[in-house]
Amino acid sequence: MFNVTRRQAFAASGGLLSTLLLPQRFASAAVGSTLNIAYNVNLPSFDPDIGPSSVNPTIQAIYRSIFDQYIGQKPNLSFEPGLLTGWGWSDDKSKVWMDVRENVVWHDGSPFTPEDVVWSIQREGKADGGNPVAFIWAGIDNFKIDGKRITADVKQYDPVIFKWMAFLTGYVLPKAYYEKVGPEGFEKKPIGTGPYMVDAYEGNAYLRLKANPKYWGGKPPFETVVFKFVGDATSRVAEIESGSSDVTLEVPYEEFDRLKSKAGLKGVVTPISDIGMIFITNIEPMLDKNVRLAMCHAVDKETIIKRLLRGYGVAIDTLLAPEYAGFDPSIKVPYDPALAAKLLGASGFSKEKPVKFTIQTTRGFKPKDYEMIQAIVGMWRNVGIDANIETYEIAKHFELRMSHKLAPAAFYNWGNAIGDPTTSTGFAMFSKSPHSAWHSDDLDAKIGPLWGEKDEKKRIQGWTDVDRYIAEQGYVLPLLQYAQPILYKSDLKVTPNVSGALQPTLVSKA
Amino acid sequence: MLLAIIANRIAMALLTLAGVAVVVFVLLRVVPGDPIAMMISPGAGPADIAALKAHYGLDAPLLTQFWIWITGVVTGDFGTSITLHLYVTEVLASRLPATVELAILALLVAVLLGGTIAVAGTLMRRTAGETVIDGLNSIMLAVPDFIWALALVLLFAVAIPVLPLSGRIDPELAEGFSTKFYLAESVLTGRFAVAGNIITHMAMPTVALALPLAAVIVRLLKQSLKEAMVQDYVLLARIKGFRELHLVLQEALRNAVGPTLALTGVQFTFLIGGTVIVERIFSYPGIGNLAIDAVINRDFPLIQGLVLLFGLIFILINIGVDFAVATLNPRLRHA
């Protein structure tokens, strides 16, 4: 209960007035060892293994600051020891082994143990536990701990399980602490073993982290890191331009070009593991191979990147970006409008008698998504394709895709931070995947055996062959690899991350 | 008599909220996009999708889902947010104070600004000054709050960076609060530096929200004042030798303020609706910003809780306005 006298009220108003009139020095501005990041998404939940946030790629930079993954990942997507220092399969691939890092402590000072690892994997693999990729973690079971080594039986062979240990929901949580405080308690006071500890949090506003002095990977470069959740791109531009934030990302390319050469600022653009593509659904008129191939050959991707994305992006002809395993630069689907017109002509279509269908796209979900589709529809029109554009929300796209009800063509972006072809070509093109649009037996026959292929070299080559076949058949229209713009103060050094995760540990003083 | 009116209003409010509950529940299930489709990852099979649906209680028949939810609502349990992993009531209680403070501050600014301009316009009637005021007011009225927000960002955060752009308070100062009413608490506890910091954070969103409402107040109040200024009682006061300012403030304003108050109440609900976009632009942690994330993620329990809360706020504002108007106008008390 507050009791305020008239004198106090008068003093209060005077004090408030003087505070407002005095020159402000905003504490949030870059000072000393504090790093302010104007971040593009909000952090809804601190649990990196459960719920929708756990599979949101853009939040991983925050999770990686607080928690450690089983296996680490370098900015170039290669893997490195995390909380596991070693890992592998038995010769017959019936067992896995994992060596757990020693002398690691949780943020509350309690020791990190192999039991934490086992408990975390089991929690992530529970079918009814709320982990969206539980099927990955449920593939190993019957864990045994012997000193720092954990062994487990392989219930279902998945060649990429160790790659997932550096990917979505591959985080180790503290068993004893979580069981003590429960899910709600953990949300309110989360702890991990990561480089930064949670200090303060206000949803939709900011997250303040303090350096973990006992971090096994060495002291982080900044004592304090503040993630400001600035969902609006214009506001992020203002944050960096005004000096209120030290780093920001995902600003419009026009603003990036304007600000990167401004005094006191620097900018870097890096191709990331996120691609733009057009799904083709196996319905009319896409059952005609000539139509599909004409669609692919009629699109001038380089011009789209140059004109619409100011040159920031990399044209691709398969669902694999150059940094992914299995990428083969020799697979090409060249821009050839004459060939496109000829293919359409063979099926009885022309500019005068165009083939007609609907293409769905988001508008504003990705940079220039709608404008790109407008440009593509224009290019198609020149060869005899009359596509009607239908815009929808991303949520509708997911639902339509899951129920195999997308239009004949549908624009989407696909992320794959572990760079394995299973998580791109595999899940986007295999008919049993809820994310695929093209369903055909010929393609399934080629993809099916690769899921369980135990010879890694053969497995990767198999995916490359599948990609070549897809390109020859025109089962999908890959467009471009996106590039992530990052703006930062010139007294900082930023190492871009191909996964797109702008982690504070990748920012240092220049 | 008064008790009967109050009971009637409460019954109507409950009926309205029940209708809102049904509509929002059905709409969410009818419009495309569900939370499971938003989160399933590549490789998930039908069994995995079914397990996730069961985990979030979305596998039950629609009527069962509604019954579970509505019986929970009646007992104060709005469910658990899918994305935040927290009780919806807890989330709403922690975010609502930020929006309440922002909306009230914006209302105060709008009333003060609108009232002042309306009085000035009345004093300057039939002069060039009135034309200027009408012109400026038309601009204020035509430009929506989010455009004002962006303009203010460019002006006071980029061109002349004197105001902080995002958040409700500097993170370094957001400690030691026993309530979520940061501004009220910091003023009442004498933490003026903190209060000042909060006000600088609220300045731009407040003005962005206040300007369109102020314009509405100007238009209506000025018109009412002009009509009042030709009434007999004003003429009598003028004959008595009172100055023009006295005539406007003491004679005309009291009689002209009724319609403006009623309309301001209605417009205040629009102002609260405007917080959704404005809070987003300024990364202000209120229920508006929360609502955008909830919709993007198809967080059904949270959206349902937010819509009911917005509904309740609108009903309370309308009841409040009705009583305020009745209090100020004795003729309406017995209507």
Pick out its properties:
heterodimer; A: 510 residues; alpha+beta; eleven-stranded mixed beta sheet; four-stranded antiparallel beta sheet; 16 helices; 23% strand; globular; B: 335 residues; mainly alpha; 14 helices
Structure description:
Chain A has 510 residues and is an alpha+beta fold. Chain A has 16 helices and 19 strands. Chain A has helices at residues 6-21, 60-66, 114-125, 134-137, 161-164, 175-188, 233-242, 253-259, 289-297, 301-308, 337-346, 369-381, 394-402, 425-429, 441-447, 456-473; strands at residues 34-39, 71-73, 79-81, 84-89, 95-100, 140-146, 149-154, 196-202, 206-211, 224-229, 247-249, 265-280, 314-315, 355-361, 385-391, 409-415, 476-489, 492-494, 507-509. In chain A, the strands form four sheets. In chain A, strands 1, 8, 9, 10, 11, 12, 13, 14, 15, 16 and 17 form an eleven-stranded mixed sheet that branches. A four-stranded antiparallel sheet of chain A has the order 4-5-7-6, covered by helices on one side. A two-stranded antiparallel sheet of chain A has the order 2-3. Chain A starts with 5 loop residues before the first helix and ends with a strand. In chain A, 51% of the residues are buried. The model of chain B has no long low-confidence stretch (mean pLDDT 89). Chain B is globular and about 85 Å long. Chain B has helices at residues 2-30, 35-39, 46-55, 62-74, 88-123, 128-142, 145-159, 182-188, 192-228, 232-239, 244-281, 287-296, 300-328, 330-333. By secondary structure, chain B is mostly helical. Helices cover 76% and strands 0% of the residues of chain B. Chain B is built from 14 helices and no strands. The chains are: A alpha+beta (510), B mainly alpha (335). At the A-B interface, helix 1, helix 4, helix 6, strand 10 and helix 7 of A face helix 2, helix 3, helix 5, helix 7 and helix 9 of B.
